[in-house]
Design a protein that fits this description.
Helix 2 runs parallel beside helix 5. This protein is of the alpha+beta class. About 3% of the residues have low confidence. It has two domains: 111 residues, Lipocalin (Beta Barrel); 62 residues. It starts with a helix and ends in a 5-residue tail after the last helix.
């Protein structure tokens, strides 16, 4: 009898160890692939939900990709409308879902690290600057007859562009300061 209990406990421990290794941990993952240019899919895993966002940088312009929200099905699988997030044999994959399952494309995700977070922050900061482009040009045109203000605005924009590599919260403070100082309305 005690041997059976010991065997049952041992089996339960083995099963628990296997399930904890298979879990997809929270964090920011990404994968790169090439279509017409280098494309990055970022996957943000938070608890029972994962978010997918495609972003690509082409000559300092950011291109949007598809968005999707994935819901956890079990410890190693999240399902959304366009994507699956699965963990098989210790490797996390982002799966682009197609009509036929055999046509699904598997992309290996890079585990969370500081370089991915920096790339994520840079791309989102560039998106904020791109949204500001037309109002910035309009303000620049309004200063054409005032050379000092014109030059000062150009210099301030260049300083702002050099700060794109900072974190998103720090950059948002600088962006708001720039918009306030030069009365740029989006």
């Amino acid at each position: 009898m005690p041997l059976k209990k010991l065997l049952v406990i041992l089996c339960m421990l083995v099963l628990c160890c296997n399930t904890t290794k298979a879990q997809i941990s929270d964090g920011l993952y990404n994968c790169q692939y090439v279509l017409l240019h280098v494309w990055d899919d970022f996957v943000l895993v938070k608890g029972d939900t994962a978010y997918v966002q495609g972003l690509s940088e082409i000559k300092s312009q950011i291109a949007h990709g598809p968005y999707d929200t994935l819901i956890r099905q079990n410890d190693n699988k999240y399902i959304g409308a366009k994507y699956l997030l699965v963990k098989e044999e210790g490797i996390t994959y982002l799966v682009h879902r197609k009509r036929k399952e055999k046509n699904n494309k598997y992309y290996r995700l890079n585990p969370p690290d500081e370089a991915i977070i920096q790339k994520w922050d840079r791309r989102h900061n560039m998106l904020a600057v791109n949204r500001l482009y037309n109002p910035y040009i309009e303000r620049l045109r309004s200063y054409e007859n005032e050379p000092q203000r014109h030059e000062k605005l150009i210099e301030a924009h260049q300083v702002l562009m050099r700060k794109v590599d900072t974190t998103q919260p720090a950059f948002n403070i600088e962006l708001e300061r720039f918009k306030k100082d030069y009365e740029i309305v989006q």
